[in-house]
Give the backbone structure.
Amino acid sequence: MRAYLAGALFCLLTAAAAAAAPSATAPCPDCSLVLIGLDDVRADRVKAASMPRLERFARDAAVFTQAVSPAPWTLPAFVSLFTALHPSHHGVVNRYSDPSVDPPVPAVLGKSAPGARTLADVLRAKGFRTAAFTGGAGLSGASGLSSGFEVYADSRSFGGFDLSVPEALAWLETRKAGERFFLFVHGYDAHGFHAGHFPPEEDERFRSRRDEGIGGARPPADREERGRRERRYDEALGRLDRNLAPLLDRLDRPELRGKVVVAVVGDHGEELFEHGGVDHGLTLYDELLRVPLLLRVPGVKGRRVGFQVRTLDLMPTLLELLGAAPDPALAAQMEGVSLLPALRGETMTLDAFSETDFLLHASLRSLRTADGWKGIYDRRTQKTQVFRPASDPGERRDLAAKAPARRQELEGRILAAFDQEPLAPGAQAVVSGRWKKVREGGEVWLFDLWQDPLRGMSKVQAQRPAAVPPEILEKMRREGYW
Ligand SMILES: [Zn+2]
């Protein structure tokens, strides 16, 4: 319940955009849907030279050049994509809701946000046949992502499109003519943990760099190491493009070309040493938040959309495109808005909130405003960085000291959006999930109960272990996301 009340605030913050989006006749009420999830693909590295097949697809698609993810890593980002809820509202912010017990308690959408429906839930209820072929790992169905899918393939770890695309093509052959379907195809081809991304000696170096980052250290990389890492990443995007091509080719065949909405979306980007690190999850800079988002709708002309949108907007957009209007409860759940006005050439004004509590080694919240400002608030230090991404796309110049009024405004909006239980006058403490806000000596402090449980031991609620099979728990451990 609290998640939905909190969601209402995000909706208020984007009310101007919602009000400016008149309902429209669904452009393709008989269409099926293919959703392609490009794991670890950052928007600024998608180029014709390395990804010619995707570039060809883009000619007939709406290409959103400023699409922002609500989270910088796989699990919370995909749960957000499938629910249109921010991570702190769907609650699947890490693989475990409680890592402090043995066995740790996995986070499960049905428990953290009871009643929340996924895109697959909604389309299945409308009679769509549903199937998902994923690379596993963060896409494990155990977290609730498999909800609504009749078929959900997630057995491998960091698998690529070389495996999921043939499975998806085989499934397409089995469908009956005239049956509407929702097919989700996902691949980790660009991920550093994908087999073959690095030669063995570079793989070891990548993993040790990643572990150093998680441990809080970011030793500088020289030009040679940066260049090599960038080349490996671009090579991986090239392989991704080649592995994805058979699916895009199949979707171009006449029997599907005019009958399928095709969405291509990234979940988050990848650090290539821009802020000292590799991999993803620990920061909220644009190399992690800006992702590709392309939408091809039969009968709708391709265009480039240069204003900011959120991947949270994809679910409401797809439902409207497919003529699957949300009921009031679903409309209240979804924190994104339909992007149909953008497909008609209208401008929208959308602010983007993002967050991470990656493995409990970071706790950051950000706001990227439609008018070009960005604030990143660190919940541990209670400090806010301020950037102007349009003129400083690398986010190198922190303007917090030079623009104190802007810093205050951004910080105030971030706190209002994420800290739903402000400390009331006279109150000494309030607990919100794992966070405890305490008034001490005239100051208000925020404590992370998982990092500092003594601060709030009396208030921490014991959690019952979820019924997740031991072999899945073991697989999660092996994949190294804790
Ligand atoms: Zn990912």
